[in-house]
Design goal:
Elements: H1 6-11, E1 27-33, E2 39-45, H2 47-50, E3 55-59, E4 84-85, E5 91-97, H3 100-107, E6 111-116, H4 123-128, E7 137-141, H5 144-149, E8 153-161, E9 173-178, E10 184-188, H6 193-204, E11 211-215, H7 230-243, E12 247-250, H8 253-259, E13 266-274, E14 280-292, H9 298-307, E15 317-326, H10 340-358, H11 362-368, H12 388-398, H13 401-414, E16 418-431, E17 440-447, E18 453-457, H14 466-478, E19 485-487, E20 490-491, H15 506-533, E21 540-543, E22 546-549, E23 552-557, H16 558-567, E24 573-579, E25 584-586, E26 591-593, E27 597-610, E28 615-625, H17 633-652, E29 683-688, H18 713-726, E30 735-736, H19 740-748
Parallel strand pairs: 1-12, 8-30, 10-11, 14-15, 18-19, 28-29
Antiparallel strand pairs: 1-5, 2-4, 2-6, 3-5, 7-15, 8-13, 9-10, 9-12, 11-20, 13-14, 16-27, 17-18, 17-24, 21-22, 22-23, 25-26, 27-28
Helix pairs in contact: 6-7, 9-10, 10-11, 14-15, 15-16, 17-18
Bound molecules: pteridine-2,4(1H,3H)-dione (LUZ) and dioxothiomolybdenum(VI) ion.
Pteridine-2,4(1H,3H)-dione binds near residues 223 and 300.
Length: about 750
């Protein structure tokens, strides 16, 4: 089944926040933000701005009736700055005018005086100054100190990965409308409708039931709208509360790039110990996470880094620590992989470093340490239904890795200016919110009396096609044609207290809730149908819009059963609730079983580097991926392709730059380059691993959103392989992204 949105998308008919027809008394908002990264506000003059014709009101923290606090995990972030500012782009005031252009004109007339304070932009500096978000976290397994003394080889090194801009095509935005009795309805481009509802209620000082959040769909989220869609909706809501008029606020790209947080940059140091047969016996790692100026989701992101610090390898002795470093950058936030990719880049760096020092191929160390059944992760979970070796082996066999290696060696022998590089990248990604209590969802299903069906869930459609999967599950469980099913918007009045659509878990959690609701409805309809046909309930099933008896099609249509149920006053609506069983985690011991299951896979990356220019092209990426039993391979392969491109972008070309004053330099699409059709691999081959699936995944179809992003890490090491082929004196460095400039420097370093 195709993505149900494709028709509307191609015709430009799909609705996003900015497409909503607005009421004619609608006003427009715009943020006035800090021009300085750190300092004390001495004076702000709004007089000239307020006098601009068409400006209705300029809101500041003084206009807040509830709390000036939007922090999700820690209460450390004001909606609007009061006395101090902590990053450039921090919201200070909100201009509401009769048009966006008038608001913009007014913003330019606001003057501010700030007493500047020292600015921290890197995690290392923050560590030196003891500037942290919270206490460090640490996962331990075995005894690294003792293990290192028993190793034949011990190596130490450093690894750095930069941030990443989400660059959702649809920028942040919302439309807030006053309803009767002081209620407010907000259409928001958010991954977390309940988060928006909760924080709006807190800041306005009202109860949650007065605030309704509606989400049609998002033009991309990637984690950037898990927490950071909230402030804009809150600002608009404050204005609505005061003015009793609708307020629309869509960020322009420049404001969005400047004011929102990104993937966390990490600076890390590692120590890795191996035996002669290349078994990794000990791994010691310290991660410095550049969290930005407030906690946002950083503590949760940090946790996931520790969970993925050993990627898809078994290491019996692990000592890992992460420090969330407070800097004067916009608060960094969720980004596809949520700290996992940053953790995995460090272990891959450590393995590459050891391989270089030992003069062996990196893949030999990788292969010697892959996870197997019964292995323990550093956080205590025992690995089961492990597909690490199966994916690795199948990748090497199906794509003839040995032959590729020979071809590359031959090519490199025959060419001086062009060099090819190869890498293998295995992944293991844990599925579930690491915070156990977030793993739940609900679905509300109505069967209308004509047999058509409406489905509401907590899932937010953001291009990942989750609505298509929800529709498929509904149609499949009820035995009706997909055209009978409609997916409703995601709305807090229909499905309440939702977790954000995140952690690759949206289809699993909401899909299982749909499954439960549909099963309950089918049970009721089975009883009705059995009476209508005068047969036992046990032999009834629903398929192809008909009732089946003993797996034989009867003459009884779905619509007739629904009609009969209606006349018998049988409930045709159901609310399904699902909470992932089995999972648990004890933070006081840092041990437990936090993940429902893991997703595995292996990618081969082949690149050709132009050694005169430092530019490169990816010839091919060949992947064996563990989809479980995919419920929609077209959609799932699309997720792998998209995630791969995004991962390659993070590792190779997307370079976020701040100056020492904390000003974002890569603040336009001409200075921040994301992969386009010319930079994606010329060939992408994806083979689904053949497995029986995993019963913890919905319909045994595994989560697919985030795991494949980490195949992109292979791109870094493929380039490194090519650079080594050109420059025998090159000492591998681990400093992503590997931009053409850095490649060029590496090609000629010490040559
Ligand atoms: N969000 C979250 C996430 O709140 N918890 C998680 O574990 C997570 N993992 C991945 C992406 N978003
Ligand atoms: Mo996410 S990084 O699953 O919002």
């Amino acid at each position: 089944m195709r993505n149900i949105d494709s028709y509307g998308h191609v015709r430009g008919e799909s609705l996003f926040v900015d497409d909503i027809i607005v009421r004619q008394d609608t006003l427009y908002g715009l943020t006035f933000d800090s021009p300085i990264a750190h300092g004390k506000i001495k004076n702000i003059n709004y007089d000239k701005a307020a006098q601009v014709d068409g400006v209705i009101k300029i809101f500041t923290h003084k206009d807040i009736n509830g709390e000036n606090q939007i922090g999700g995990i820690l209460p450390d972030e004001p909606l609007w700055a009061e006395d101090e500012v902590h990053f450039m782009g921090q919201p200070i005031a909100f201009i509401v005018a009769i048009s966006e252009s008038i608001a913009k004109k007014a913003r330019a007339l606001i003057t501010i005086e700030i007493d500047e304070l020292p600015v921290i932009t890197t995690a290392k500096e923050a560590k030196e100054k003891g500037s942290y978000i919270n206490a460090p976290r640490s996962f331990m397994l075995g005894d690294t100190e003792k293990a290192f003394t028993n190793c034949d080889y011990v190596f130490e090194g450093e690894s750095f990965s930069n941030g990443q801009e989400h660059l959702y095509l649809e920028t942040q935005g919302c439309y807030a409308v006053p309803m009767e009795n002081g209620n407010i309805k907000i259409t928001s481009s958010t991954q977390g409708p309940t988060a928006v509802q909760k924080i709006v209620a807190r800041v306005l000082g009202v109860a949650m039931h007065t605030i309704e959040i509606d989400v049609i769909r998002l033009g991309g989220g990637f984690g950037g709208k898990e927490d950071q869609a909230t402030p804009w909706a809150v600002m608009a809501a404050v204005a609505v509360q005061h003015l009793k008029k609708p307020v629309k606020y869509i960020l322009n790209r420049h404001d969005d790039l400047r004011m929102t947080g990104k993937r966390h940059p990490y600076e890390s140091t590692f120590k890795i110990g191996l035996t002669k047969d290349l078994k990794i016996k000990a791994f010691d790692v310290e991660f410095l996470q550049n969290s930005g100026a407030a906690a946002d989701l950083s503590p949760a992101v940090a946790e996931r880094t520790l969970f993925h610090a050993t990627n898809s390898y078994f290491i019996p002795n692990v000592s890992s620590i992460i420090r969330s470093c407070k800097t004067n950058l916009p608060p960094n936030t969720a980004f596809r992989g949520f700290g996992g990719p940053q953790g995995m880049f460090v272990i891959e760096s450590a393995i590459a470093h050891a391989a270089y020092k030992l003069g062996v191929d990196k893949s030999e160390i990788q292969e010697a340490n892959l996870l197997t059944e019964g292995d323990e992760f550093s956080y205590g979970q025992i690995a089961t239904q492990v597909e690490a070796k199966a994916c690795w082996r199948m990748t090497k066999e199906a794509f003839q890795f040995d032959k590729l290696q020979k071809e590359v060696a031959l090519f490199n022998k025959e060419n001086t200016v062009l060099k090819k590089g190869l890498s293998l990248m295995p992944i293991a990604f844990g599925i579930s919110f690491t915070n156990t209590q977030m793993n739940h969802a609900r679905a509300l299903i109505h069967i209308y009396q004509d047999g058509s069906v409406g489905v509401s869930t907590g899932a937010v459609e953001m291009g990942q096609s989750v609505n298509t999967k929800m529709l498929q599950i509904t149609a499949n469980t009820l035995g009706i044609h997909p055209s009978k099913v409609k997916l409703e918007t995601t709305n807090t009045t229909r499905v309440a207290n939702t977790s954000p659509s995140a952690a690759s878990s949206t289809a699993d959690l909401n899909g299982n809730a749909v499954l439960k609701a549909c099963s309950a409805l089918i049970k009721r309809l089975t009883k009705v149908a059995a009476t209508m046909l005068s047969v036992e309930e046990e032999i009834i099933s629903f398929k192809d819009d008909k009732v089946f008896v003993n797996n034989n099609k009867s003459d009884l249509f779905w619509e007739k059963v629904v009609e009969q149920a209606m006349s018998q006053r049988v409930a045709l609506s159901e609310n399904g609730h699902y909470a992932t069983p089995v999972i648990h985690f004890d933070k006081t011991k840092e041990k437990g079983h936090p993940f429902a299951y893991h997703v595995y896979g292996t990618a081969i990356t082949m690149v050709t580097v132009d050694c005169l220019r430092g530019t490169y092209k990816f010839d091919a990426v060949k992947i064996v991926h563990d989809f479980g039993k995919s419920m929609n391979l077209g959609i799932d392969i699309g997720q792998v392709e998209g995630a791969l491109a995004q991962g390659i972008g993070w590792m190779t070309m997307e370079e976020i730059a701040f100056n020492e004053k904390g000003k974002l330099l890569s603040n336009t699409l001409s200075s921040y380059k994301v992969p386009d059709i010319f930079s994606v691999p010329k060939e992408i081959d994806i083979i689904p691993l053949e497995t029986l699936g995993n019963h913890m995944a919905v319909l045994k179809s595994k989560a697919v959103g985030e795991p494949p992003l980490m195949y992109g890490i292979g791109a870094y090491f493929a380039i490194q392989d090519a650079v080594k082929a050109f420059n025998k004196n090159y000492q591998p460095k681990f400093h992503a992204p590997f931009t053409p400039e850095k490649v060029l420097m590496s090609l000629y370093a010490d040559k």
